[in-house]
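Re: that chain you flagged

S.,

Sorry for the slow reply, it's been a week of failed gels. I finally had a moment to sit down with the sequence you sent. For the record, here it is as I used it:
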Amino acid sequence: MSSDNAEGQGRNTRQGNTKIVLYWLEKSRSQRILWLLEQLNLNYELNTYKRQNMQAPPELKKIHPLGKAPLISVQAAGAAEPLVLAESGLMIEYLIDQFGPELAPKRWQDGKEDQVQGETEEWLRYRYLMHYAEGTLMPLLVTVLLFNTIKAKSPFFIKPLANAIVGNVESMYLNPNLEQNFRLLEDQVKSAPNGGGFLCGSKLTGADILLSFPLGAAKGRSSFSKEKYPTLWDYVERLEAMEGFKRAVQKIIDVEGSYDPAL
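Prediction finished late last night. Pasting the structure tokens below so you have them in one place:
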């Protein structure tokens, strides 16, 4: 299914005649790319796909060899072929570099340009979190999803054994690591420079957008609760109240009929 973002007001003047297409897969991590496109007021085409037996449909392999989503294609005016990008972190960095540099912190401290250790605290946080989101946090949450599936779908005659094995791994490895990560992020919000409010400082960045999906999916699940991590919980609710985020959610509802941030 294809849909155009046709809002004509306040469009991003950096885009010019560049064509952007987001390839959206239901129940995937595509939402945050959609939010970024809305946050940057970019015109884009939305191509949506349904899962088949919990997997991405084979049509996506025509766009990228791995057949995963999200994907974006960017085609400048006059270009013979579009540039196809995979991996959420790369897509966010590319779109910010090209169309929204205000969503990346200032890199250098004044007077320390291009010097070793001359970077600002905000920029170093930003770069770390852009790698942390998919490299550290998401694998743990995907493991939660896999374990929940095992517990729910194991045949009845092996369910007690499966539940016992999963329970041991959860208590010995998964839950302690999740709690350690949520404490880290709670502290990151509390200690954010320049008055805080976001992970890297007082302004929204691509790192906030990238982390919005795993944190939104984890709310009320696993060990992430308002009682344990009140600052982090309130931070996620502030993200979800932002206009760009709400426009993205409404776009999902318009296309899919509902919005569920679950993994």
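What I noticed first: The first strand starts at residue 2 and ends at 4.

Talk soon,
D.
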